[in-house]
Amino acid sequence: MNFAMPAMRTRVTELLGIRYPIIQGGMQWVGRAELASAVSNAGGLGILTGLTQPTPQGLSQEIERCRSMTDAPFGVNMTVFPTITPPPYDAYIDVIIESGAKIVETAGNKAIEFWPKMKAAGISIIHKCVAVRHALSAERLGVDAVSIDGFECAGHPGEEDIPGLVLIPLAARALKVPLIASGGIGDGRGMAGALALGAEGVNMGTRFQVTQEAPVHEKIKRALVQASERDTRLIFRTLGNTARVLRNAVSEEVVAKEMAGCKFEDIRHLVAGARGRQALEQGDPNGGIIAAGMVIGLIDDVPTCSELLQGIVRECRAHLNRAQSYFQ
Q1: Which end of the chain is more exposed for a tag (fewer CB within 10 A), N or C?
Q2: pTM for the predicted model, two decimal places
């Protein structure tokens, strides 16, 4: 592939062996081989979402499928949360190791249990955190990089509501391992800001969901393009498990039930993962819960991953140069 923009060099690019320090976040139902390979081919780091595959064997096949679509590095996401009926995490981790994958993005405090096995296999671990104290714990336990998630992010931003403008420099000041900024980043301005705040790379989820290669129905992409920065909702707030999602009929109903006082069982049918997956695949923006960050307000097109990365790097460089000119 011909790259219009020159390669960048940070500790993140050196650790991961990539051209640009731009990582595609692990997104349930979205992080498949089509998207991950496209991001990696464009010079970033594509991520397969491990638990999108229904079985460990399915993940093994998806890793091989991705490998057939790119010669560039890509990673695998493994989110480990305590659940009533947890998936066979051990088997998924074994498959990742046996596949020869060398980069894993983890999330959830239970992921700690699997780090020694992955480190022994020579895997580089990027751990996603929402608080500096958690990032410091992960660093002490040997992760290779930390992805810090600001309150603006899609999915679970934690319960402390610290936005990236504060969280990123706090983490950069505290950590010795490379820092990746996540949440609210979707263009070159955001990347330039994250680098100026002390990060050495960025992680984007929602922005990559709205690309040509993302395995998401065109009607969903159109809904995200048309949405503004005000069109997200925080669900599970009253249950201590806050998640940021697209404002739609389902998320509005969930919020209304929470405000009236409810238990998880009262909303389980609304937030079921299978329902969200069906919405993404069949193109019903009101069919289920759809994760989306506040960055949707900055998204107004559906580029290829190559076009997106080249544009972000070009814009990032221009804005960093412009900022530097203020001192001349």
Answers
A1: C
A2: 0.96
